[in-house]
Hints:
The chain is of the alpha/beta class. The chain contains 26 helices and 36 strands. Residues 583-688 form the Stealth protein CR2 conserved region domain.
Amino acid sequence: DGETDSTDHSLLGSVSSRLIPEKWDNQHNALTDVVLSRALAELRTEILVTSTPALTAMAAQLAPQNVVIVEEEHRSTGTRGVTAEPILLYGPRVDCIVSLTDESSEWLQAELQDAAPRLVTIPNAIPNVFRPETSGRRPLIVAAGRFVPGKRFDHLIKAFAQIAPDYPDWRLRLYGAGPQEEVYRRLAKRLGIESRLEIIPPVTDMLAEWSKASIAALSSRSEGLPLVLLEAIAAGVPVVSYDCPTGPSEIIEDGVNGRLVPTGDVTILAQALGELMGDQSKWLRMSIAAKESARRYSPEQIQKNWTELFESLLLEAKEAGTRQERISKRASEAAHKVPLEEEKSVQPPSARDVGEEKASWCVLELPELIGERVQRRNLEFGLRFLETSGINHLPLKGYDASRSVIAISSRDKDRLLKQLSMGESQGLRAEALLGTRKLTPGSWDPHRSPAVPAAFASATVVRIYHEYADPQMTVRRGDGYACDIELWQDVPDEPGMLAPPRHNRELDRIAASTFNSVSHSGNCVNLPQASDASGVPLWSEVSFPIDAVYTWVDDTDPEWRKSRDQYTIDSGRLHAESSSAARFTNRNELKYSIRSLRMFAPWIRKIFIVTAGQTPDWFVQADDAVEFVSHESLFPRKSVLPTFNSHAIETVLHRIEGLSEHFLYFNDDTILTRPQRPETYFLANGIAKFFTSPTKINYLGEDAPPHLTAGSNNRDIIRREFGIEISQGLLHTPHPHRKSVLAEMETKYQEHFDRTRSARFRSTDDISLLSSLAQYYGFATGRAVPASIAYTFVGLGREGTEDLMTRLLRGAKPDVLTLGEPNHDDPDPAHTIVLTDYFLRELVPIPTSYESDTES
């Protein structure tokens, strides 16, 4: 065992690690294998703390058995993607995983289940140094971070632009640098606020900068436990933030020390900023609360948490011996959990017991596990539970699309907890929240443990739900579709008034006497001004019908293929894109896209599927909610058929008989991935929204692919008609449209419509009506507005696609994703087929009634 020389080091450093795959951590190689293996084997310590998942994997394999292993997880585990694999594989072989946020701990619990080691949440500390505090006198909003797409500072700029005219003294200051800087400057100029946007290079000491701010803002897609927010609240700066995974909700108590708004909703972000900009008394209350909330991140408190954890782990190690013995003990305890008793009096409707293994779950058939139905079950149970408990209550509308809200007086909190502790409903779970922040990971099962957990003493919201699953336990529904019972508090300066513990969409004050009123049906308070009680929609809620329209083709149909091949020959020279097989590839995406509509947009009135007279093999039978429409019934001139041009088909979809005024145009490769509201796509007054892409509409000449020349043709039309240049394409999302606008355009641009319809294949003379032109025409005529949506493009047959799919299945999901066919030859088409099919089955696992029994 002599010392290795520099040549050996260089050679080993160039060889891949045999212990840590590069996809887990590309910092490892054969040299680190040698050095770390030796160091870990010779380790003489009681506790080893690892700082990355890859190091945890090495420690679990190589550290001595008497060493206690603790991973300190610095990032949001659920959004790590493939780099989380070491935790999932080796986490059960360590003693403890410490996460920065409860959300990460809960994600690990859900993934590892009974194999999980001890899971603990300990946030980062705020350094105990002198820090100046804000006076709130400067009209300044501050945000800081790298100028990259994930930080979404463009959302913040757009939000500020919406309210800037009302607050002419206010400025927005961004600290940072990165590739998006020029994008931000151009956006501010386009929105007319370039003189009020300040972009400052990164500074070494942000402490002094926070004291200059009156409001801190965060608009990221995801965060760990953002240090910028910790620094801001320590300086007494209230924070307005997207409620993104995973950190902001751990720091911000909505309405107390800041505002949490739905991720990606620029309009509500603007409203929340304006709320603090225009109300000095509210700002002052939140500033004081921000400084107070920073105390739990003090070095003394965080050190105390770590010390108590280490002492507890050492005591456990002393009692249980080696690490393997501790793992075996955990497994044994998990295997001998006492099954729950039979259900008692208050039961969730139409649910039956599971077997011994999963006795706490209530079994439903797959169609009943659609989120809206589970949400309704939990709401109905909550209303019935409060009714039988004699607690007056008022249903309200919150911001979460998948959870229900009921308000009660905080004076009834003790009665609520007492009734819950009786444990009369098997499978019922309860969680304690302070505003929007969960107070503990996991949940309380009153049926098994009647004692009310201590965390509920501080709760201002009690979340209740039943855990539902299908018989095979493939689809599970838990707190994501819960019923939140809000405890409305007395307002110190407003006698007789109650205030909510967090923001909702309806009320911020209720007379305390309301909950003593006899003007109610049973115990459910009926207020004329509360829309849930009166049945009248809110001003911002869409109440008109919305349809969905798909275009679809079966490229495996031999007759269709024969016809396409013949017309390809007859058409002479075509651009390669026009007849590319990738444009017609059918991977059964339509099946999964329709599933996603049923799961996440149940408000869709009817689905129309426009085809060349084809029907999918898996489709059983249409009904009043789904209708197939042939090209022949839509094209005014039958001589242009058959057509293989999606641009041409777009020009006739508004002619569908029975189509509602408002509809969403879907390509079959577009999939919804989380609950949607119609307000994502339309304003309540009927105005349609559209979602711009960073991709530009360029003038590339006649040799450019037809989808690009169609964009430039659109640009020409809008410039000539309205005297404005359109420069951005649109995201490949569901496209909201109004039938009357399209009919008006057909009359005005008949020549363009006819020319596009006459082209059997995509051509350089086409317009792209539904994926660009109509949106900008609607904008120019006051009937469409730009908006934002959480979107992901999944390119098939590309490097990194499998990792992206893994992240989407395990972590936070966008509103919508699109599957893109390979731009070039797929190196492994068979693998792409298998991978895509698996991904879609896992992503949207609940079949519709339109699928044959052999399909799943």
